[in-house]
Every structure is written in C-alpha cells, then in structure tokens.
What does this fold into?
Amino acid sequence: MNDKILPHDHGQNTLQSFDHMPEIADFQTVSDIFKQLGDGSRIRIFWILCHCEECVINLSALVDMSSPAVSHHLKQLKAGGLIVSRREGKEVYYKAADTEQVELLHHAIEDLVKIACPSK
It folds into this structure.
C-alpha cells in the first residue's frame, strides 16, 4: 500500500498503518461468514452445535422451529463450512466443524452476547 498517495496529508502516517491490511478476498470471506450468520436463529443453532452434536428433530425442539426450517439453516451452515454432519442409520447428526475459524467465531459470538446483553 506504500505505492499509494493520499490526496490529503493529515500528518497521521495513515498508509504505514495499513501495511498489513488483509487482501480484498479476505474481507469478502469475512462478509460471507457474516451473511451466513445474518439470522438470529442460525446463530443460535450454530451456538448449540458448538456445544453438542444433535439431530434435526432435537434441534427443532431446542429452538422451537419446524424441522424444515432448521434443515434450511443447517444446509447454509454446512455449505459455509461451519458445521459437519454424520449419518448413523437413518439419523443425521450435526456439530460444529473442528476448525480454528469455527472456534474463534464461537468465542466471538459469546463475547458479543456479553457485550450486547450484559447481565443486570
């Protein structure tokens, strides 16, 4: 970014501050994750799956939603690589993917809940 020249010099050395700025594609990846988690129900399902492995029927009961609605959310979370599934007979079980990104996202959600909804 050192090859850029800003139209106004405010004496802040702005360009030096951004020498390690992520690539445009990295910001798009983050945006895609936020889109996947742009629904409170989906965040709730993801949070549950960070704590346990569950089937659609039990998830439906936990979040008080229909099985088709939960399945829709699971499909989006799985497509984004945030959850994984395994089949046991006729039953499919879901859990959070075991990746550093998922762990960081899980902790970020918990931290944001603490910030946005502090205990009284």
Q: What stands out?
A: The radius of gyration is 19 Å.
